[in-house]
Amino acid sequence: MAAATSVEVSNDVHDHGTLVNAARNRVQCRYCPKEVTGFSHLKYHLGQLSGDVKPCEDVPENVKILMRSRQFSWKEDKCPPQRSYTVIPLRPTTVEEKFEFVL
């Protein structure tokens, strides 16, 4: 049999953490002893994204990439693309008009 070159990673963040205290919504990372508040913070922890939680140093690279891609794809879906605007002058101006003096 050929050895697998990549390991299949679960897309569900619930598979990468254990609910420790449901009343306080505390979740423990499966790769380190860190406890965070909720699975949303666990995504930031595993993706090593800046935020309110300390990044996980023991997370596998493929899990880190998956969590980062999930966060950025969510933001792309939620935020509309930036619009570009073209400024069109109401009437053309000439140099003579700018320096016209009335005595």
TrEMBL record:
Highest taxon, organism lineage: Eukaryota
Protein name: Zinc finger protein
